[in-house]
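Holo prediction — NAP.
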Amino acid sequence: MTIKIHEAASLHENTLSFIHRERHKLLIGGVWVEARSGETFEVFDPATGDLLGHAAAAGEEDVAMAVAAARAAFAPDSEWRRMTPQKRGELLWKVADLIEANARELAELDTLDNGKPYRNSLYGDVPQVVAHFRYYAGWTTKIEGSVPPVSVPNTLNYTRREPLGVCALIIPWNFPLLMAAWKLAPALACGNTAILKPAEQTPLAALRLGELMVEAGFPAGVVNILTGLGVPAGSALVDHPGVDKVSFTGSTEVGKLIMRNASNNLTKVSLELGGKSPNVVFKDADMGKAVKGALWAVFGNTGQMCTAGSRLFVERPVYEQVVEQLSEAAGGIRVGHGWDKSHIGPVVSQEQMERVLGYIDEGRSSGIEMHRGGGRLGERGYFVEPTIFSHDASGDDLRLIREEIFGPVVAVTPFDDWEEVVQRANHTEYGLAAGIWTSDLSKAHRLAEALQAGTVWVNAYNLFDAASPFGGYKSSGFGREMGKEAIDLYTQVKSVWVSY
Ligand code: NAP
Ligand code: MG
């Protein structure tokens, strides 16, 4: 199979030369190397199914080498450990500058690899990545301890916030570059060393980011990038006793496995997992805004958002109206490859397409109503129609309503009163996010308090900012990324007692 680039893509020369390397390496200890086994895996364009290249498939040996490199970079007398916080901040800022200077190339790589519209990559993901590095560049000089007022006479007690050590960062494919930034920026700001394991579907932009980090001047071994499969690359990282912390974003199923395996060495773990988020529309909402918001809450990024508003609750008096308007609006969504003026791209892989279509078929045969969509679009690439189901409370326990689909599928349901919507919205193992649409502010605040979710949006959906913490309740995980909370995630506290 030879490499083929979508005919509509007009790529920057740097992107072309990156793609035409065809065989991509691992970054270990500041050097680009093949996997020790020589093994690679194929990388595909989900908009065509065509081959984009081969990435090195890291195995146990490569993991051991990366851990050794990251440990050496974290040694007490290393350049990285001796580096001043200010200089660390400058390096992170430099990465942001380099990302900005190479924005087009990085956005093109994410679109090739993940399929998302190029405009989204360029004007959505990449600027957020830049903002992340800048935000945490500012934090390096503000990671403080405290002086607790202890009651022991003639004694000073103070605390130090210290890095954890070697952090394994394991990420999914829905926002390849952004997920890397969510983890790398705070981990490095806190003075840790890092081993990033991108998803096997989308390794390319992370590799280019690795090159930019080397160019920025991080000492060898501070940032390592291991492309490879969940097993053995991800699992060997989790099992390795030289890893101090695993920060994982991905499915709840793999998250549970990681937590079990990490317990052998008591490796610290933080988990950002799946969701099945409720989005609640009250009859007093601005209907135009609510329908548009509900539409993109679930169909944005082709539904491949952990926060997707996939359970839409609508107050009965406006229910018919919302279903109708939502169906009409969904009909206007342009689904296509990322180089077109499409609103949404394909799902990420054939496997994912089959999974999503499986849920849709199951929904159909369960007897609930399907208003729009329901199938694959075209025969080339992995395109799925935006699909709308509706059901009443008796459908709440269907698999389609309970499980995360991670595709463009929404289930709309009417509700009659406050108690009902609170109970049903919280009737899920997940608790990542929720949306509320109403013009009654006190109702919004009351519901924001009642919903079991790590993030609640009122009259909005999917707003994110490097300064605002993000993470899950219940089976959506624990630990908070972004904001000052991420500093807690990547540091530990030492209490020092001095008698005088
Ligand atoms: P996934 O299958 O759980 O994979 C996530 C990452 O874990 C990938 O890099 C994967 O490698 C790796 N992995 C797989 N098995 C492993 C193992 N046994 N040990 C260590 N690592 C392993 O999830 P996905 O399908 O890529 O992503 C979709 C999921 O991510 C959804 O459930 C979504 O909700 C969740 N997500 C959550 C958030 C959040 O912030 N809460 C954000 C985005 C996505 P491979 O690529 O080789 O499988
Ligand atoms: Mg791919």
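READOUT: The chain has two domains: 13-273+477-496, 278-466.
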